[in-house]
Amino acid sequence: LGRTGKWFVYQHAGIQPDVALLAKGLASGVPIGACLARGAAAKVFKPGTHGSTFGGNPLACAAALATLAAIEEEGLMKNAERIGGILLAGLREALAGRPGVAEVRGHGLMIGVELDRPCGDLVGQALEAGLLINVTMDKVIRLLPPLVMNEGEARQVLSILVPLVRSFLSQPAPAMPARA
Fold first, then answer.
1. Which of 19-33, 71-85, 131-145 has the lowest mean pLDDT?
2. What is the helix (H) or strand (E) element at residue 155, kind and residue range?
3. Partners of 114 in the β-ladder
4. Superfamily assignment of 76-170 in CATH?
5. pLDDT in tens, 34-76
6. Which residues contact 130 (CB under 8 A, 6 or more apart)?
C-alpha cells in the first residue's frame, strides 16, 4: 500500500479494477484484510453473506487507520517514488544491458532485477554483506525496501547489491538439464 508511489499499483496502468484486495500492508503487519469492490462486483456482496472470523477487530482497525494516516502525513508515497527512482536509476545504470541481466523493472519501492539464470545463492551472499533481499521465480531479485528508506540507505543498497550481482554474473551459468 503506497509502496509504488501510488496507493495501488494498478493506478500506474490507469485502470480501475472491479475488485481490489488489501492485507498486511494496510495495518503495517497487524493481521487485517479488506476486499474493495465497485459496480456489479459490489452487488455480489449482500448483507450477511460476507463475513470474517476476525472482522472488525478494534486493534487491527486502529492500526490500519494509523498506517493510512502515516502514509499521507509523512509523505511516504512521495518518498517511495523518489527513493525508488534513485534505486532504479542506479540499478539500470549499473546492470541494464549487461550480459546475464534480462530486465531491471519497478515502480517506487517495488523493484525487480531479472537475470537469465537462477540466482537464489545471492540471498545468502547479500545477507552476509548486510542486505536482505529475496529471489522469486528462481531468477528475479526482488527488493521491497521500507517506505521510510532515505537516500543514504538507498545508495548503501546499491553499493552492496551491484557488486554482488556483477560477481555472480561473472561466473559461468550452470548447465541446464536436458529435456526428456
1. 19-33
2. helix 151-170
3. 103, 140
4. Aspartate Aminotransferase, domain 1 (3.90.1150.10)
5. 889 999 999 988 887 777 776 778 999 999 999 999 999 999 9
6. 160
Going by C-alpha positions, the residue among 59, 58, 34 that lies closest to residue 45 is 34
For 26, residues 6+ apart whose C-beta sits below 8 A from its C-beta are 1, 32, 33, 34, 64, 67, 68
62-71 contacts at long range (C-beta below 8 A, 24 or more positions apart): 63/27, 63/28, 63/30, 63/32, 64/26, 64/27, 64/30, 64/32, 64/34, 66/28, 67/1, 67/25, 67/26, 67/27, 67/28, 68/26, 71/1, 71/2, 71/147
CB 169 within 8 A of CB 115: yes
Cell, residue 90: 542506479
Q: Environment class of residue 179 by beta-carbon count within 10 Å: exposed (0-12), middle (13-18) or buried (19+)?
A: exposed
Intervals of CATH 3.90.1150.10 along the chain: 76-170
The answer to whether 136 and 142 are in contact (CB under 8 A) is yes
CA distance 146 to 40: 36
